[in-house]
C-alpha cells in the first residue's frame, strides 16, 4: 500500500482541472481530419478508466497497434484467431469511431509458416499468391463494412526508392503489391485501401511511392491514401521536408494520412527509422530524463509538436486522418526503441494521462478560429 499510495494520489490529483476541459481534440478538429490513436487489447476493456476517458473523449479514429498483424491473426495456416481483433472493431463501433485495420501484408510480425513448405523451403510464387489471397480475403471479409480502411501493404520500399528485399519481393517480385491491393478490393469493394510506410519524407522513397500510386491507378486498382507513419524526433525531419512529401503524395492523386505519429524527446544520434530490427544497446547518456522532462526540453517538444499539428491543419484538404501511435507516454513503443528501457515522452498525453500543453493550445486556437469563421459566415 505504501508504494501504491503516492501513485494513487498522483492519479487522483492529476489534471483534475483539465478533466472536463471542453471542447476536446476531436471536436476542435472536426472539420479538419479524424484524430486517431493506436490501441492495445488491454485498453479496450475499460478497466483502465483514465485511458478509456482519454481515448473516448479526444479521439474519433482507432487502429490496432498489434492485434491485426498476421502472426496474431493466423499463427498457423488456416487457423485464425480473431478474439482481440473482434473486440477492437466492436470498441470502435460502440464509440462511433473511424476504424482502420493494420496491416495485411508486412514482412514483420508475420508467422514463420507463411513463406515455407513442410520441408522448410521457400514456397513457389503460386503458393505464396494463394496464401496472400486466403489471408487477405478471410481478414478483410470478416470485417466487411465495419472496418473503413486497411493498411494493405506496409513498409515495402526503402529510403533510396528500391524495393525492400523481403520474402514477398524475393518470391513474387514487385507484383506482390498490386496483388495485395487487388485481393483486398475483391474482399470488400467499399473499403478504403492504403500504402503505409515510415521515413516517407526521404526523396528516394517519395518518388518510388508516387510511382507506385500512379501505377496502381493506371492498372485500375484502388488506392485511396498513402500513410506517412511519422515516427519523428526533435532533430528531424524538418517541417519543409515533411511538407514536400505531403504535397507530392497529394499530387499523385491520393489522400494523405499521418498514420503513426509520435515524436521522441530523447537523444537520437542515429539514422531515423522505425525498423524494429535496428535496436541499439542501452547507454545511460541516451536516457537522460528518467525523472521527468526538464522544462526547457518540454517547451521545445511542445513547440515542435505544435508546428507539426499546424502543418497538418494547413494541409487539411489533403490529409484525412492524423493518428498518434499510442495514447500516453507510458505505453509508447518508443520507450523500447531503438534502445530498450528508456523513458521517452513522444505522445500528446503524459504518463498520468494528462494532456500536454500542446493539446490545450491546439484546442484553444482551433476553437477561436472556428468561432471567427462561424461569425464571418453569419
Ligand atoms: O508499436 C508496435 C510494437 O508494439 C511492436 O512491438 C512492433 C513490432 O514490429 O510494432 C510496432 O508498430 C509498428 C507498426 O506496426 C508499423 N510501423 C512501425 C511501428 C513501430 O515499430
How many helices?
12
Overall structural domain count: 1
Annotated CATH homologous superfamily: Glycosidases
- The name CATH uses for the topology is TIM Barrel
Count of beta strands: 9
Q: Label the structural class.
A: alpha/beta
Helix content: 25-40%
The neighbouring-strand order within the major sheet is 1-2-3-4-5-6-8-9
Nearest-integer average pLDDT: 93
Low-confidence spans: pLDDT under 50, at least 5 residues? 1-13
**Radius of gyration based on Cα positions:** 21 Å
CATH architecture: Alpha-Beta Barrel
Estimated share of beta-strand residues: 5-15%
The small molecules bound here are: ligand 9MR
Order of helices and strands: HHEHEHHEHEHHEHEEHEHEH
What would you say about this model in short?
This protein has an eight-stranded parallel β-barrel with strand order 1-2-3-4-5-6-8-9, surrounded by five helices.
Written description of the protein model:
The structure is a single chain. Helix content is 39%, strand content 14%. With 378 residues, the protein is an alpha/beta fold. It has a single domain, classed as Alpha-Beta Barrel (TIM Barrel), CATH 3.20.20. The chain has an 8-stranded parallel barrel, surrounded by 5 helices. α6 runs parallel beside α8 (176-187) and α11 (295-314) runs parallel beside α12 (357-377). The longest helix is centred in the last third of the chain and has 21 residues, at 357-377. The protein starts with a helix and ends with a helix. Residues 65-66, 108-109, 154, 198, 229, 260, 274, 276, 333 line the site of ligand 9MR.
Amino acid at each position: 500500500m505504501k508504494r501504491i499510495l503516492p501513485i494513487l494520489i498522483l492519479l487522483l490529483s492529476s489534471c483534475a482541472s483539465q478533466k472536463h476541459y471542453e471542447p476536446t481534440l476531436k471536436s476542435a478538429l472536426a472539420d479538419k481530419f479524424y484524430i486517431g490513436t493506436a490501441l492495445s487489447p488491454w485498453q479496450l476493456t475499460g478497466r483502465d478508466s483514465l485511458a478509456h476517458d482519454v481515448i473516448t473523449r479526444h479521439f474519433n479514429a482507432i487502429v490496432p497497434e498489434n492485434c491485426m498483424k498476421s502472426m496474431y491473426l493466423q499463427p498457423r495456416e488456416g487457423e485464425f484467431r480473431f478474439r482481440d481483433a473482434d473486440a477492437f472493431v466492436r470498441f470502435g463501433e460502440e464509440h462511433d469511431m473511424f476504424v482502420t485495420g493494420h496491416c495485411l501484408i508486412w514482412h514483420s510480425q508475420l508467422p514463420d509458416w507463411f513463406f515455407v513448405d513442410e520441408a522448410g523451403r521457400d514456397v513457389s510464387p503460386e503458393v505464396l499468391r494463394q496464401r496472400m489471397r486466403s489471408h487477405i480475403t478471410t481478414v478483410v471479409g470478416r470485417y466487411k463494412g465495419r472496418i473503413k480502411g486497411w493498411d494493405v501493404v506496409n513498409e515495402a520500399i526503402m529510403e533510396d526508392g528500391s524495393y525492400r528485399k523481403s520474402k514477398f519481393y524475393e518470391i513474387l517480385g514487385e507484383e506482390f503489391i498490386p496483388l495485395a491491393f487487388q485481393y483486398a478490393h475483391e474482399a470488400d469493394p467499399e473499403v478504403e485501401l492504403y500504402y503505409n510506410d515510415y521515413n516517407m519524407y526521404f526523396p528516394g522513397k517519395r518518388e518510388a511511392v508516387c510511382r507506385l500510386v500512379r501505377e496502381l491507378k493506371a492498372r485500375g486498382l484502388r488506392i485511396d491514401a498513402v500513410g506517412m507513419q511519422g515516427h519523428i524526433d526533435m532533430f528531424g525531419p524538418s517541417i519543409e521536408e515533411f511538407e514536400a512529401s505531403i504535397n507530392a503524395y497529394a499530387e499523385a492523386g491520393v489522400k494523405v494520412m499521418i498514420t503513426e505519429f509520435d515524436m521522441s524527446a530523447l537523444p537520437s544520434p542515429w539514422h531515423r527509422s522505425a525498423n524494429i530490427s535496428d535496436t541499439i544497446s542501452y547507454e545511460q547518456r541516451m536516457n537522460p530524463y528518467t525523472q521527468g522532462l526538464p522544462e526547457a526540453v518540454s517547451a521545445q517538444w511542445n513547440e515542435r509538436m505544435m508546428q507539426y499539428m499546424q502543418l497538418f491543419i494547413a494541409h487539411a484538404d489533403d490529409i484525412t486522418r492524423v493518428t498518434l501511435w499510442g495514447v500516453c507516454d507510458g505505453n509508447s513503443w518508443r520507450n523500447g526503441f531503438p534502445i530498450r528501457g528508456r523513458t521517452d515522452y513522444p505522445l500528446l498525453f503524459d504518463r498520468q494521462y494528462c494532456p500536454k500543453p500542446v493539446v490545450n493550445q491546439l484546442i484553444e486556437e482551433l476553437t477561436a478560429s472556428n468561432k471567427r469563421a462561424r461569425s464571418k459566415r453569419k
